[in-house]
Write a structure and sequence with these properties.
The protein has five helices and nine strands, in the order βαββαβββαβαββα. By secondary structure, the protein is of the alpha/beta class. The strands form four sheets. A three-stranded mixed β-sheet has the order 7-9-8. The chain has a two-stranded parallel sheet with strand order 1-4. The chain starts with a strand and ends with a helix.
Length: 169
């Protein structure tokens, strides 16, 4: 799963991906896999060890599509995110030989990933195939887990559930 870039550290509730309590990623994952949006949340913090163990067990890797950015408004919004350096996704995939699917968690992550391809960004819930060094990888574009994205939590979870079911997770 590839997101864009973490919010400013002041918004973090843990030192891991999707650290903002206002972000719905861990609620989405709780709904999809356990029918419980609070499964990975304990009051005002995340159950970090539990979610890391879960990701390892499921074989889900998480990373950012951007390595260095400028947040123009000093907030978590990707709308004002200027990419200085993209992450080396090709190099990342070389370390994950069994990885055949990428999920982008929002438009900005999709835009960054596809910036080196002559491929139009798929609509939310759609997929496209990419080739990295003769390896075909399916990109699944899913909705942003940000609460700023105008879709209710249950609808977001439906998109994620459909892809994870397709991948037999």
């Amino acid at each position: 799963m590839l997101g864009s870039f973490p919010p400013p550290p002041i918004r973090w509730a843990m030192n891991f991906y999707y650290p903002n309590l206002n972000n719905d990623m861990w609620r989405i994952m709780g709904l999809v896999f356990f029918d419980d949006k609070e499964y990975f949340i304990d009051g005002k913090k995340f159950k970090e060890a539990l979610l890391k163990d879960f990701l390892t067990q499921k074989g889900i890797a998480i990373y950012d599509t951007a390595k260095t950015v400028i947040r123009e408004n000093n907030n978590a919004s990707d709308k004002f995110l200027t990419i200085i350096q993209k992450s080396d996704i090709k190099g990342l995939l070389a370390t994950l030989p069994d990885c055949n699917h990428i999920i982008t968690t929002g438009e900005k992550a999709s835009e960054i990933l596809l910036s080196n391809f002559d491929i139009k960004i798929p609509k939310v819930g759609q997929s496209v195939e990419l080739t990295f060094d003769n390896k075909i990888v399916t990109l699944h574009r899913l909705p942003s887990s940000s609460r700023a994205y105008p879709l209710v939590l249950d609808k977001k979870a439906q998109f994620y559930r459909a892809v994870f079911e397709k991948l037999d997770l």
